[in-house]
Here is the input.
Amino acid sequence: MANTSKRNNESREGTVFYRRRIGDWLRRYIIELVLVALVVAFVITTTVITIGARSAFREAKDVRTALKFVGTQYYGANSSIFDPSKINGLADGAAEDVAAVSTRKGKVYLYAWDEKDNEPLRFEYRKGLYTVTYIADKYTGKTGEDGRVNQMMGHWDVTYSFNVLNYDTE
Here is the structure.
């Protein structure tokens, strides 16, 4: 009996090898792989959406400039680019003129126009799943630190959306 207690109390020196079960290793590897794939997919999706939003924003700024340019042409012809009776808010032929000047492929919806300064007060530019909304500071009544309305700036809002449901009546 003394021999068995002596063996149990003895410490073994050296490296002790043990065998892991393959199922535990495989389960952990698959979980880590799925988590890494989800993080990479999230980062790639966010990057692609952000790049598209920045591109749509740049195009909307070009459209704003084109609206001012075409509005000046219409003003010179003693008419207005803004026609609130139309769905897109643009007079006949104005949408084509804006597209030709800006060389952009999206759709423009003009909601408010400043006849005095001949510039857009509120419009939307839609391209694909991106919608860029511009609201001029004059339209919202916001002023700068000096109390004046900044003529060049406004509020820009870029949204990314897709239709979940779309119902059409027949």
About this structure: The helical segments are 2-9, 22-76, 94-102, 137-140. The CA atoms of residues 137 and 151 lie 8 Å apart.
